[in-house]
Specification:
The structure holds three protein chains of three kinds. Chain B is mainly α. Chain B has 13 helices and no strands. Chain C folds into two domains: 277 residues, D-Maltodextrin-Binding Protein, domain 2, CATH 3.40.190.10; 220 residues, Roll (Dipeptide-binding Protein, domain 3), CATH 3.10.105. Chain C is built from 17 helices and 23 strands. In chain C, helix 10 runs antiparallel to helix 12, helix 15 runs antiparallel to helix 16 and helix 16 packs antiparallel against helix 17. The chains are: A mainly alpha, B mainly alpha, C alpha+beta. Chains B and C meet through helix 2, helix 3, helix 5, helix 6 and helix 7 of B and helix 1, helix 4, helix 8 and helix 14 of C.
C-alpha cells in the first residue's frame, strides 16, 4: 500500500479518537435536538426527586370538597376527581412512571441479552432452539403477552414491568444475536481464538461490548414507548396496584372521560408522557448518530 | 425460491405446535375459573360443578388438549364457554372489521408516510423535515385513546364533519353480508352508503395509523438519506439521468427495503393498537374480543384466536421476506 | 439548523396548547328538560298524551345499549342487555305498568288472576284475538307449552345451566318445581297449581324470561337443541328468532355489533302499536366517553345509560336526561364476619357500627353519582314491595370514634384491606375505583390503615365475594323484580343450605325465619309485616353499610319523543316516535 502523500489538515472530527464512548459523548453533546431531549428528561428526573420540595400537597389523599377545581394559584394544575392536587401528582407521578418505564426496559434487556448472547455466541443447536422460542414470542402480539402475564400473576408494579419487558425481549434478543453473528467472523475474534482464549471469554470480553451498541440505542427508544405501553395497559384496566399512588398512565386513563369538562386533567399527564417520550426519542436518535461508525470518518 | 417457501412453511409447524401447547398450559394454570365468569352473581357450587362438567374442564389436561387438537385438525376451532358461539362464526363476523381498520391505517401510514419521508429525506434539515420530525415524535408519543377521543371530539362533536363511532350508519339500512362495511355498502349500489362507510373509516384509521405513520416516515427519511449519498446514485446523476428517474429507480427502490421490514414487524403492533382503537370507536373487531376472552378465561377462544394470529403473523413475515428478495436481487434464499 | 427545528417545535406546541384551551370552554347551559316517568295510565304501554303533539310514524331509532345480548332466546338469559331487547318482542301473562317497578298489570292475561284462599291456585283468563308474530294463534296451549318447556329443561344440559330464573323462582326443574300442574279448562283459561304458596309469584312472572314464545317457532326452529353451540334459535341465527307477541319483531343480530328489530304490523293492541319502523341497538359502545360523543354527534339517538359524570355535558349539549324515577338497586359496603372459619374484626358489632358512622355517604353520592341518587333507608330501595324505612347511622366522626374505641382493636387489627372490582360499571357503582379511594380516606380518618386491593369483576371478584373470601368489599344488587325477597332474602341474608350467606357470615336465625315466613305468606300484607320485622333486625345488626339507591341516567337527542323510563330498566319503545 502506498503511503498517502498529500498532507491535508484533518477536520476536527478526526482528532485523535479517545475511544468509542468518549467520542460518542462528545458528538452527542454537540447535537442540538439530543440536548433538548436530555434537558426534558433531566427536568422530569429532577422534578421527581425534588417533588416534596416543590409541592406541599399529598398526592395520594384528597378531600372530596376540593374536587375538580380548575388551575389556579393555589392549585397550579387544578385538582382531580378526588380533590388531589394535580401538580403534586404529576411530580410524584414522574417517580413511578419513569421507574416503571426504565425497569421494564431493563427486564427486557436482561432477558434479551441472555437469550441473544446464548444464541449468537454459542450458535448451533442452542441458537436454533432459542430463536424458535423467540419466534413464538414474536408471533403473539405484545398486548396479549402483557394481558396474559397480568392475568397469571395478578396486578402490581412488578407484574406490569415484567409484562412490558417481556414484550420487548424478542427485539433485543434478535438484535444482539444479529450483531454477535456478524462479529464472529471479525478479525479480533479470530485473533482471540488463535491465541487460545475460551469461547465464553471471547464472548464476554470482546464481542459483547461491541455488540451492545445497537442495543443501547434501541433501549433508549424503547424507554419512550415503555411509558406509553404502561399507560395503554392502564386503559385496558390492567394498571399497577394501588390507585392512590400517582402514575401518569393511570392519571391519563382516569381523566380521559373528562375530556369535555376538565381537559386540564388530561393535558398535564399527557404532556408529561409525550415530553418524556420525545426526550428519550431525541436522545436515542442522537446516540445512534453519535455511535454510527460511518460518521467517524 | 419455491423450496425456500416450502421450508419456511414446514418450519412454521413446530412453532405453531409449541405455541399451542404453551398457550394451553398457560391458560389452564391461570388462577380463576371460566365457570364463575359465566355464571357471575348467580353462581352456586352445584351450578359451577355442572358447568365445569359440561365444558369438560374436569378431564385430565392431556385429554383436554388432545381433544382440542383433534377437533382443530378437523377444522373445528371450538366455541366460547361464555356464549356458546363458535370461534369460526365469530371470527367471520369480527375479523373483517379489524382488516378494514388495519388496511385503512396502513394506507394512511404508507400513503402519507412514504411520500413525506421521501421529501424530508431529499431536503434534510429543512423546515419540512423539522415539522415532520416533531409531528412524528408526537405521533409515537401520544397514547392512542387520547388521540382518538380528541379527534372524535373535534371532528365529530364540535365540527360534525365526521361520524363518531361505528363502521356505518344503521339508518341507511345496508344489509350485513360480508361484514366488510365498505363491500356491503358497495353491494347495495348506493353511493351514499359507500361514502358513509368510508367516512366512518377515516378517524379510526388515523388514530391507529399514527404510530406506523411516524415510524415509516422516519425510516423512509433515513433510508433516503443513506441511499442518496451512495456512489451509485451519484453515478446515476453524473450519467445525466433526470432527478425523477434517479429517484424512482435508484433511491426509492432501495429505500423500500427497510420499510417493508418495518411493515412486517408492525403487524403485531397494529393488533395492540387495534384493541384500543376498537374500544374508542366501537368497532366490532377481533381486538376487543380477544381481550375479553382472556379476562373471561374463555380458554378455547383464546387458544384458537392466538393460533390464528400466529399464522397470520408468520404469513405476513413470509410475504415480506419474499418481497424483500424481489426488491433486492442480491438476496437469494437457498 | 437548530433554530429551524426549534421553531417548528414551538409552533406545533403552541397550536396544541391553544386547541386545548378552546376545548375547555364547553360549559353546561341551563338544565335541559327531563322526561317524567309513569305518564302512561292504562294497563298496556300507552303513548304519552301529555305533550298534545301527534306522533309521526316511521324512522329508525338508533339505541346505544350497554352491551351485547347473551342469547336471543329470553328463556336462557339473566343479563340486563338481553332482557332490555326482549322486552320489546315478547310478553308474559303479566307485566309491569310502564314507568313503574312494582305495579303488576295483566298483559297477555285479560285480567289479574283469581287466587285461591290458600294461595296455591292461580286462574288466568287469557286475552283473545292475539297472534304470535309468525301468525300462530295465542291460546292456553301456547302458555302451557312454554311453561312445560322450561320445567322440562335438563339441569345437566347447558339449557338448564343457563336458565337461571326458572329454578330461582320455582325451586328447580322437573318435579323439584313448585308448579305441580298447569291445566287449560278451555282455550282461554290457564290454571296454575302450586305445591306451596309463593308471595312473589305474580311479581316474578313480569320478567321477560317468562315471556310466551310461539310454540310453532320453538318447535320448527329446534329451540331446545343442546349443546347450545349448535342451537341457531338461541343465537338468533335461525330463520325466525325470538317470536313473541310484542309490538316489535326480531330481525337480525350481528353479534358484537347490533341487533335490529322491526315494527310488528299485526300487533294485537292497535291503540299502542309502535310508531317507529325499526330500532337498531348498537351493542359495541362499551366505553362511556365514546357513548357520550356518539350521542352528541348524532351517531346514536338514545343511550340506555350514560355515566353520572357526563350528565352535565349531556344537558349542555341539548340532550334530554331520562329520569328513571324509582331506584331498583342497592350499592353497599360488604363486611364479612368470618373467613375460612375464623372470625374477623367485622364480627364485632361495634366495628360495623363505627364504620357505618365513619363514612360520609352523602359526599360520595354527590361526587360520583347522578342527581337522583339517594342515601338508602334500608337494604332495598323505597319503591320495593315490602320496604320499611329504618333509621340508619349518619356520618358522625365522634360516634365513629366512640364505637371503634369500644371495639378495642389493636394496631395490627386496624390494618385492613378494602376490595373493589375492576373492569366493570354497575348502576349502583359507576366508578368503583374512586368510590373505594374516597371510602379509604374516610376509614383512614377513623383510625384504620387501609390497603386497596382489586380484582377483575367477571373472572374473580364476583366469585370471591359471593364465596366469602373478601373481608371488606364494595358490592351491590340490581333487582330481578322489585320485591323485598329479591333483595334481603335472595340477594343478601337468606340462609343457604341452612347456613348464613358466605358473603357476610351474618347469623340471625330470627331474621331468617321472618323472611321464610314472609315468602310463604298467603297474602302480600302478611308478607310485608314479616319483611318489616326482618329489616328491623338487620338494621340493629348492621351487617353491611348501605351506600346508595341509584337510578342510572340515560339520555336522548331532541328528535326523540315519547320515551318513558323506569328504574329497573324495563322500558318499552312502542311509545317512542322521531321528529325531524
Amino acid at each position: 500500500m502506498a503511503a498517502p502523500s498529500i498532507a491535508v489538515t484533518p477536520p476536527v472530527s478526526q482528532r485523535a479518537s479517545r475511544g468509542l464512548w468518549r467520542d460518542a459523548g462528545r458528538r452527542l453533546l454537540r447535537n442540538g435536538p439530543a440536548l433538548i431531549g436530555l434537558t426534558c428528561i433531566l427536568v422530569f428526573v429532577l422534578g421527581a426527586i425534588l417533588a416534596p420540595v416543590l409541592s406541599s400537597y399529598d398526592p395520594s389523599l384528597g378531600q372530596l370538597a376540593d374536587a375538580r377545581q380548575t388551575p389556579s394559584l393555589t392549585h397550579l394544575m387544578g385538582t382531580d376527581l378526588l380533590g388531589r392536587d394535580e401538580f403534586a401528582r404529576v411530580l410524584y407521578g414522574a417517580r413511578l412512571s419513569l421507574q416503571l418505564g426504565t425497569i421494564s426496559v431493563v427486564f427486557g434487556l436482561a432477558f434479551g441479552i441472555v437469550i441473544g448472547a446464548a444464541a449468537g455466541g454459542l450458535g448451533g443447536k442452542v441458537d436454533g432452539v432459542l430463536m424458535r422460542i423467540v419466534d413464538v414470542l414474536l408471533a403473539v402480539p405484545g398486548i396479549l403477552l402483557a394481558i396474559g402475564i397480568v392475568a397469571w400473576l395478578g396486578r402490581g408494579q412488578i407484574q406490569i414491568m415484567l409484562a412490558v419487558g417481556v414484550s420487548y425481549t424478542p427485539i433485543f434478543a434478535r438484535l444482539l444475536r444479529g450483531s454477535l453473528l456478524a462479529l464472529r467472523e471479525a478479525d479480533f475474534v479470530l485473533a482471540g481464538r488463535s491465541i487460545g482464549a475460551s469461547r465464553l471469554r471471547i464472548l464476554v470480553r470482546h464481542m459483547l461490548p461491541n455488540a451492545l451498541t445497537p442495543l443501547i440505542v434501541q433501549a433508549t427508544l424503547a424507554l419512550a414507548t415503555a411509558i406509553i405501553d404502561v399507560a395503554g395497559l392502564g386503559f385496558l384496566g390492567l394498571g399497577p396496584g394501588d390507585p392512590r399512588v400517582a402514575e401518569w398512565g393511570e392519571m391519563l386513563t382516569d381523566s380521559a372521560r373528562f375530556l369535555q369538562y376538565a381537559p386540564y386533567l388530561i393535558f398535564f399527564p399527557a404532556a408529561a408522557i409525550v415530553i418524556s417520550a420525545i426526550g428519550f426519542n431525541l436522545v436515542g436518535d442522537g446516540l445512534r448518530e453519535a455511535l454510527d461508525p460511518r460518521l467517524r470518518r | 425460491m419455491p423450496r425456500y417457501i416450502v421450508r419456511r412453511i414446514l418450519g412454521a409447524i413446530p412453532i405453531l405446535f409449541g405455541l399451542s401447547i404453551a398457550l394451553f398450559l398457560f391458560l389452564h394454570l391461570l388462577p380463576g375459573d371460566p365457570a364463575t365468569a359465566i355464571l357471575g352473581q348467580h353462581a352456586t357450587p352445584q351450578l359451577i360443578a355442572q358447568v365445569r362438567a359440561n365444558l369438560g374442564l374436569d378431564e385430565p389436561l392431556y385429554l383436554q388438549y388432545l381433544g382440542y387438537l383433534g377437533r382443530l385438525l378437523h377444522g373445528d376451532l371450538g366455541a366460547s364457554f361464555v356464549d356458546s358461539r363458535t370461534v369460526v362464526s365469530e371470527f367471520a363476523t369480527k375479523f373483517p372489521a379489524t382488516i378494514e381498520l388495519t388496511v385503512g391505517a396502513l394506507i394512511f401510514a404508507i400513503g402519507l408516510g412514504i411520500p413525506l419521508g421521501r421529501l424530508a429525506g431529499r431536503h434534510p434539515n429543512g423546515w419540512l423535515d423539522g415539522v415532520l420530525t416533531v409531528v412524528s415524535l408526537f405521533g409515537i408519543s401520544v397514547p392512542i385513546f387520547v388521540l382518538g377521543y380528541a379527534m372524535v371530539y373535534l371532528f365529530g362533536v364540535e365540527l360534525h364533519w365526521l361520524p363518531a363511532v361505528g363502521q356505518a350508519d344503521p339508518r341507511l339500512g345496508v344489509p350485513t353480508v360480508t361484514h366488510f362495511a365498505i363491500i356491503d355498502a358497495a353491494l347495495t349500489g348506493r353511493p351514499v352508503a359507500v361514502v358513509d362507510a368510508l367516512a366512518h373509516l377515516i378517524l379510526p384509521s388515523i388514530a391507529l395509523g399514527t404510530i406506523p405513520f411516524a415510524i415509516i416516515t422516519r425510516i423512509t427519511r433515513a433510508a433516503v438519506i443513506d441511499v442518496a449519498n451512495e456512489d451509485y446514485v451519484r453515478t446515476a446523476r453524473a450519467k445525466g439521468l433526470t432527478e425523477q428517474r434517479v429517484d424512482r429507480r435508484h433511491i426509492m427502490r432501495n429505500a423500500w427495503l427497510p420499510v417493508t421490514t418495518i411493515i412486517g414487524l408492525e403487524v403485531g403492533g397494529l393488533l395492540a393498537g387495534a384493541v384500543i382503537t376498537e374500544t374508542v370507536f366501537a368497532w366490532n373487531g377481533v381486538g376487543s374480543w380477544v381481550v375479553s376472552a382472556v379476562e373471561n378465561h374463555d380458554y378455547i377462544v383464546v387458544q384458537s384466536l392466538v393460533l390464528i394470529f400466529a399464522v397470520i403473523f408468520l404469513s405476513v413475515n413470509l410475504i415480506v421476506d419474499i418481497g424483500y428478495a424481489y426488491l433486492n436481487p442480491r438476496i437469494r434464499y437457498a | 439548523m437548530i433554530t429551524k427545528r426549534f421553531g417548528a417545535l414551538l409552533a406545533v406546541l403552541g397550536l396544541a396548547l391553544s386547541a386545548c384551551g378552546t376545548a375547555g370552554t364547553a360549559t353546561p347551559t341551563a338544565a335541559a328538560p327531563t322526561s317524567t316517568p309513569g305518564s302512561g295510565a292504562t294497563a298496556t304501554p300507552a303513548p304519552s298524551a301529555s305533550t298534545g303533539v301527534t306522533p309521526t310514524n316511521g324512522g329508525t331509532l338508533v339505541v346505544g345499549l350497554d352491551g351485547d345480548m347473551a342469547y336471543a332466546d329470553p328463556s336462557l338469559v339473566s343479563d340486563g342487555n338481553s332482557l332490555y331487547v326482549a322486552a320489546q318482542v315478547v310478553q308474559g301473562l303479566v307485566g309491569l305498568k310502564p314507568g313503574t317497578i312494582a305495579d303488576v298489570v295483566p298483559v297477555l292475561a285479560s285480567d289479574m288472576p283469581t287466587v285461591s284462599s290458600d294461595g296455591k291456585t292461580y286462574t288466568f283468563k287469557l286475552r283473545t284475538g292475539v297472534n304470535f308474530q309468525d301468525g300462530t294463534p295465542f291460546n292456553a296451549d301456547a302458555v302451557i307449552y312454554n311453561y312445560q318447556r322450561w320445567q322440562g329443561f335438563d339441569p345437566k344440559s347447558d339449557l338448564g345451566t343457563n336458565d337461571y330464573y326458572y329454578p330461582a323462582v320455582f325451586g328447580g326443574f322437573g318435579t323439584a318445581s313448585n308448579i305441580v300442574s298447569i291445566t287449560a279448562p278451555d282455550e282461554q283459561t290457564v290454571v296454575f297449581q302450586l305445591k306451596a304458596p309463593q308471595s312473589n309469584f305474580l311479581l316474578s312472572q313480569t320478567l321477560q324470561v317468562f315471556g310466551i314464545q310461539s310454540p310453532t317457532a320453538l318447535k320448527t326452529m329446534n329451540a331446545n337443541a343442546t349443546p347450545l353451540a349448535g342451537n341457531k334459535y338461541a343465537h338468533g341465527q335461525a330463520q325466525e328468532n325470538m317470536v313473541g307477541t310484542g309490538p316489535f319483531m326480531f330481525k337480525e343480530w350481528v353479534t358484537g355489533d347490533h341487533i335490529t328489530l322491526v315494527k310488528n304490523p299485526n300487533y294485537w293492541d292497535t291503540a299502542n302499536a309502535a310508531h317507529l319502523d325499526s330500532i337498531t341497538f348498537n351493542v359495541g359502545l362499551k366505553d362511556s366517553t365514546a357513548k357520550l360523543q356518539a350521542l352528541q354527534s348524532g351517531s346514536i339517538d338514545f343511550a340506555e345509560t350514560i355515566a353520572a359524570t357526563d350528565v352535565a355535558a349531556a344537558q349542555g349539549a341539548g340532550l334530554t336526561i331520562v329520569d328513571r324515577g324509582d331506584s331498583c338497586n342497592l350499592g353497599y359496603l360488604g363486611m364479612n364476619q368470618s373467613i375460612g372459619g375464623k372470625a374477623t374484626i367485622y364480627a364485632d358489632k361495634n366495628v360495623r357500627l363505627g364504620i357505618a358512622s365513619a363514612l360520609n355517604t352523602a359526599s360520595y353520592i354527590k361526587a360520583f353519582y347522578g342527581p337522583n341518587d339517594k342515601v338508602p333507608q334500608s337494604w332495598m330501595p323505597p319503591a320495593t314491595i315490602g320496604f320499611k324505612a329504618e333509621t340508619l347511622p349518619t356520618y358522625n366522626a365522634q360516634t365513629a370514634q366512640s364505637d371503634l374505641a369500644a371495639a378495642n382493636l389493636t394496631t395490627a387489627q386496624k390494618a385492613i384491606d378494602l376490595y373493589y372490582p375492576s373492569n366493570v360499571v354497575r348502576p349502583y357503582m359507576p366508578d368503583p375505583k374512586d368510590l373505594a379511594q374516597a371510602i379509604a380516606t374516610d376509614l383512614t380518618s377513623a383510625g384504620f390503615t387501609v390497603t386497596l386491593k382489586t380484582e377483575d369483576w367477571g373472572s374473580a371478584y364476583v366469585n370471591d365475594a359471593t364465596t366469602g373470601k373478601l373481608p371488606l368489599f364494595l358490592f351491590g344488587w340490581t333487582c330481578d323484580w322489585a320485591g323485598a325477597d329479591d333483595f334481603i332474602y335472595t340477594g343478601f341474608f337468606g340462609y343457604q343450605n341452612g347456613q348464613p350467606n358466605a358473603q357476610f357470615g351474618y347469623k340471625n336465625d330470627q331474621m331468617n325465619q321472618d323472611m321464610l315466613n314472609a315468602l310463604a305468606a298467603p297474602t302480600q300484607d302478611q308478607a310485608n309485616q314479616d319483611w318489616g320485622q326482618a329489616q328491623d333486625l338487620i338494621a340493629q345488626d348492621m351487617p353491611t353499610v348501605p351506600l346508595v339507591n341509584s337510578t342510572p341516567p340515560g339520555a336522548y337527542t331532541a328528535k326523540v319523543h315519547g320515551f318513558v323510563g323506569a328504574g329497573n330498566l324495563v322500558e318499552y319503545f312502542n311509545t317512542v316516535w322521531l321528529s325531524q
